[in-house]
Amino acid sequence: MRQLLLLLLAAASLALLVAACGGDASASNRTIAVRYSQFEPGVITVPQGVPITFTLRNDDPIEHEWIVGRPDVHERHRTGTEPFHAELPSEVTIPAFSSRETTLTFFEPGDYAFICHLPGHEDYGMVGVVKII
Fold first, then answer.
1. Residue 91 pLDDT more than 50?
2. Number of Cβ within a 10 Å radius of residue 118
3. Distance in angstroms (rounded) separating the CA atoms of residues 116 and 3
């Protein structure tokens, strides 16, 4: 059951993130930087159904995470205890002074928040939005 839930979450997240960039059927690239515990840019608009490769660059001296999804995904992470993310393309841990890439495709229009759920980071403002059009 947990594996099915993870697969469904991965598929939904993949659908969401791919729309983050315009273009044709080939993957497009977006870079999201972390500086001073803030995501830059904070808003990304992309068309639905297009695979998007996100380069997540952490310029901070501490680890961060990048979790993308609807409110239920974020609620699970606010109350969860997962210390590291490497299995789902919509849930990525980015060590200090490093980069990670993940590719997602968003099939449903709407807003999908991306948040760092490490203690205090969301309250500090480590939030952003992928707008799927």
1. yes
2. 17
3. 23
Q: Other CB atoms closer than 10 Å to residue 130's CB: what's the count?
A: 28
Mean pLDDT of the chain: 80
DSSP 8-state secondary structure symbol assigned to residue 53 = E
CATH for 2-132, among 3.40.50.10540, 1.20.1050.40, 2.60.40.420, 2.170.16.10?
A: 2.60.40.420
Predicted TM-score of the model (pTM): 0.76
Q: For residues 55 and 101, is the Cβ–Cβ distance under 8 A?
A: yes
The identity of residue 105, as a single letter, is: T
| HEC assignment per residue over 6-37 | HHHHHHHHHHHHHCCCCCCCCCEEEEEEEECC
Q: First vs last Cα of the chain: how many Å apart?
A: 32
